[in-house]
Design a protein that fits this description.
84% helix, 0% strand
Length: 416
């Protein structure tokens, strides 16, 4: 696809296979466990509370996960994560009938923690396994596998849970994880990224090489402070992500409440959005020379048209079917350019970072980008009650276009 030499890059294909098995395992269980709790309890509030509460530890663990990805052998991380998840699965298998809420919460916390580890773990392998010219394409493929796993996992969970029940579904998830661990151990080239040697100077990477967790994160912050164009891009990407986090609330609200369609229709709209994200990652991989950091403000400006596309159907009073098409097209447009921006940013971080700094800088970026989402989604729910979904989408578009213009202006000043 990318005309890489097969012998030189076959190892990268194994990395993608390991990633696929690991992510399908945890995404299947992350979807199925709270859904089974909802089906048994019949309480949407309990479902929402458990999902939000178990998500928080992954955000808090993200900086630690970046340090671990830089310092610890990848195969060892998979074994430790697998052992913890296997222990949780055994507890769940024997106790879910008597203590469903407790074992569900514990298992979900472990799954989200594993997810926090997986994000920097796979990303740190890219600059070690690929040459500089192909890093952007490698990030594109890793993102595509991640997005595809997030699509496949819930689909598998929905099919298999009805066919084999939750207990055997947990066993299926563990089989996928065991396959990932065995494949990783069969390939000795899957190691940690080369870290900075302790005592090798006084730069940021050297501080990280010999310091504790606080010093590691301080080194990441110092690195970003010295890379002002990259820091500016990360700040605006996080701001845009915070604004668009409300789309996850708007989409199911419009489909199920405003259009009065069923949950399956909302799921279809989310699936189309995920396809847009896949296309965005593929777009960067196919056109790495075009998708550069200089075009990031333009990409953000293009992304800002997504909320307007979603709002067109209801604004002009079209039929429910046309409103649904507009909403779905807008979400797919948002995720297309959102995925494009993410791949470009992550690629640039990997190209600029020292080998021993990639994990912690990426983890810092993802942690900051993610932590704003719960607050933004809560604010979005209040805003829908106050203004309605159509007005809120227009406000989102206006805010994003403002961010794009401001970023372009500040980027131009920094270059002068």
């Amino acid at each position: 696809m990318y005309r890489w030499k097969i012998k030189e890059y076959s190892h990268f294909g194994v990395l993608l296979a390991v990633q696929a098995f690991a992510l399908v395992s945890e995404s299947t269980l992350r979807f199925a466990l709270p859904l089974y709790l909802l089906n048994v309890s019949g309480s949407p509030s309990l479902y929402g509370t458990v999902t939000a509460a178990t998500f928080v530890p992954s955000v808090l663990l993200m900086p630690v996960a970046g340090v671990v990805a830089d310092r610890v052998n990848m195969r060892r991380i998979l074994v430790i994560a697998g052992s913890v998840l296997a222990s949780c699965s055994v507890c769940y298998f024997f106790l879910f009938r008597a203590h469903l809420l407790l074992v569900t919460v514990l298992f979900l916390i472990a799954l989200y923690a594993a997810h926090a580890l997986y994000i920097p773990m796979f990303q740190t392998q890219i600059p070690r396994m690929l040459d500089t010219a192909h890093v952007k394409q490698g990030v594109s493929l890793v993102n595509q596998v991640s997005t595809a796993s997030n699509i496949i996992g819930p689909v598998l969970a929905g099919v298999l849970m009805g066919w084999m029940g939750i207990a055997l579904l947990v066993c299926f998830g563990m089989v996928c994880l065991v396959a990932a661990v065995m494949l990783a151990y069969a390939c000795p080239f899957l190691k940690r990224s080369p870290a900075a040697s302790p005592g090798a100077g006084t730069d940021d990477s050297a501080i990280a090489g010999r310091g504790n967790l606080f010093q590691d994160m301080r080194a990441a912050v110092l690195f970003l402070r010295n890379e002002k164009p990259l820091l500016l891009s990360i700040v605006f990407a996080c701001l845009v992500n915070a604004v668009l986090a409300g789309v996850n609330v708007i989409l199911p609200y419009v489909v199920t409440e405003q259009l009065a369609w069923n949950v399956a229709a909302a799921g279809s709209a989310e699936a189309m959005g995920a396809i847009g994200a896949l296309a965005g990652s593929a777009f960067v991989g196919l056109t790495p020379g075009f998708c550069t950091m200089k075009r990031l403000p333009a990409f953000i400006a293009l992304l800002g048209f997504g909320p307007l596309i979603s709002a067109m159907g209801s604004f002009f009073g079209f039929s429910a079917a046309i409103q649904f098409v507009c909403l779905t097209a807008g979400v797919a447009w948002i995720l297309f350019w959102g995925s494009t921006i993410t791949v470009v940013l992550v690629s640039d971080i990997q190209l600029h970072c020292d080998g021993g700094m990639v994990g912690r800088v990426l983890a810092l970026f993802f942690a900051v980008a993610t932590c704003a989402s719960p607050a933004a989604q809560a604010a979005c729910g209040v805003a829908i009650d106050m203004f309605g979904a159509t007005v809120l989408l227009a406000l989102m578009a206006t805010t994003i276009e403002f961010f794009a213009g401001l970023m372009a202006l500040l980027s131009k000043r920094s270059e002068d």
